[in-house]
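User: quick one, fold this
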Amino acid sequence: MHRNGGPRLWRASRASNASKRLAPRWAPAVLAVALLVVALLGVLNWHSGRLGRVDAWAMREIPGHSHGYQGFLVASAISDAVGPLVLGLAAAIALLAWLRPRRRDALLLALLAPPVTLAAKGLLKEVVASRAAGGATLMYPSGHLAMATAVALTLLLVLRTGDVGAGVRRGLTILAALFVLTVAWARLAETAHSLSDVVGGVATGVAVPLSTALALSAWWPERGARE
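Assistant:
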């Protein structure tokens, strides 16, 4: 019985993962909150060239508690590393989506989420047209945070469809959250973005993968698994 029980349990687990919907049950509620945050902060920063009271406080306090020039150098190094790291993670997630869960919907999510997030970020910047005081650069939302969050969330959505233990998923969830928080601190510490830009970037990075996953789950409800 022992000898046959293991393979049977493994096959049952794999079948369960193969039929699991790409979008989790909480996706619609979290998506609604993320879209609301993006919209509200967009309205508050609409064609603005000045920091609000909360943004001004964060811009003053966070760099002031980041160990001065040394903290600024660390923050700048982290910001410079985000782009290559996000590209590498996106490629690794796409490979993982094909090799591990072997689900076409997970692969499509891994391939679509980063470029759609990039496009959504660019569109929001043009529409909101928020600029730093005396500058011409469009600020809202933070592209670094949008991409970092989108890649981190995409990884977690892909992993939940694969044969990965709960302990591993929890550990990677913590690491993903720390990654996003580190990027957020870096952008604030080097005063590259306001708190509104950072929060809007995170919300954008949450909204795009979840909406993509929901669309794929609706369009491809029971055909995501590769035979």
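User: anything notable?
Assistant: Confidence is low (pLDDT under 50) at residues 5-16.
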